[in-house]
Amino acid sequence: MPTIVRTLATIAAFSLLGTLPLLAQNQARQGSFNYPPHLPGARIETFKKVGDVELKLYVFEPKGHTSSDKRAAVVFFFGGGWNSGSPSQFKGQSEHLAARGMVAICADYRVKSRQQVTPAQCLSDAKSAVRWVRSHANKLGVDPQRIAAGGGSAGGHLAAATALVPGFDDESDDKAISAVPNALVLFNPALLLAAAEGLPKVDADRLRRLNETMHGQAQQLSPYHFIRKDLPPTILFHGTQDEAVPFVTAELFAKSMRAAGNRCELIPFDGEPHGFFNPGRSKGDDKNANYNKTLKLADEFFVSLGYLAKP
């Protein structure tokens, strides 16, 4: 793609960040990720209560798994623009990774359409989920130093934010227990939420609208703005034609992560839009091609960390 054309496309894409909640909500609907989720084969644990709301973890375990095991784990957060969505989004990935030897967990969290919360409260729930898994490692048969976080779109933002963004802890959490995961697996995540050097120039109105979505806390909730050394190893899958979360934001995030000395692998999917990694979203005859490819690469990433044995 010629440079000027790509630049114009990037500017147009970035201007759509203000519509991310609506786009993600539509995509969650199209993917038939029902709520409440129906996840047969998962053990259900309540990790947090807020008023009359009980937030659940849906735990997929390897065959023969016991609480005395010390397996690696991954906690997945669904997408939906901090507005909607369902833990069932990562059912397939969780089933695969459990069959391979990890404890894989689909986490619920409060969203605007159901509990009228802000993105900051979504992050509070995500941090609570990681803390609960770490504090209950013995019960879950999990190694507390091998807990990954993953997610797509807004869920990818939450996974990354548990590792990078300070604060936003639930007042009832035991802050002596770290909410920082040991690795990140991110699918077209929203990582850069405020103005930053290297972004194409966009009109201030678009950034203002995004900040309104974040209730005036866009920069405080932006993982990119908290990149530093000694962050968890990260793999990042992103479509180059993402209409909701521009590819340039993933490029800037990965570049800055590596400059700080962190491991960050950016896997571009040429010409793919937002949500390309979900089952049934691929072009051509094989509708699950991108889902299978991202799952294979995530598996290999976990192998490289020693979280899984080679197939």
Your description of this structure?
- This protein is α/β, with parallel strands linked by helices.
- Helix 7 links the parallel strand 5 and strand 6.
- Helix content is 35%, strand content 18%.
- An eight-stranded mixed sheet has the order 1-2-4-3-5-6-7-8, sandwiched between helices.
- Helix 5 packs across helix 7.
- The chain has a single domain, classed as 3-Layer(aba) Sandwich (Rossmann fold), CATH 3.40.50.
- It is built from ten helices and eight strands.
Write the layout of secondary structure elements.
Elements: H1 3-14, H2 20-30, E1 43-50, E2 53-60, E3 71-77, H3 91-100, E4 103-107, H4 112-115, H5 119-135, H6 137-140, E5 142-152, H7 154-164, E6 183-187, H8 204-213, E7 234-239, H9 247-259, E8 264-269, H10 289-305
Parallel strand pairs: 3-4, 3-5, 5-6, 6-7, 7-8
Antiparallel strand pairs: 1-2, 2-4
Radius of gyration: 18 Å
Average pLDDT number: 91
**Biggest sheet details:** 8 strands, mixed
The unreliable regions are 1-13, 22-31
- Could you tell me the CATH topology label: Rossmann fold
Just give the CATH class. Answer: Alpha Beta
What pattern of helices and strands is seen along the backbone? Answer: HHEEEHEHHHEHEHEHEH
Write the CATH homologous superfamily: Alpha/Beta hydrolase fold, catalytic domain
Which strands sit side by side, in order, in the main sheet? 1-2-4-3-5-6-7-8
What would you call the shape? globular
Domain count: the total is 1
Please state roughly what percent of the residues sit in beta strands, choosing from under 5%, 5-15%, 15-25%, 25-35%, 35-45% or over 45%: 15-25%
Number of strands: 8
Range of helix content: 25-40%
CATH architecture: 3-Layer(aba) Sandwich
The number of helical runs is 10
Q: Which structural class should the secondary elements be placed in?
A: alpha/beta
- Termini separation comes to 38 Å
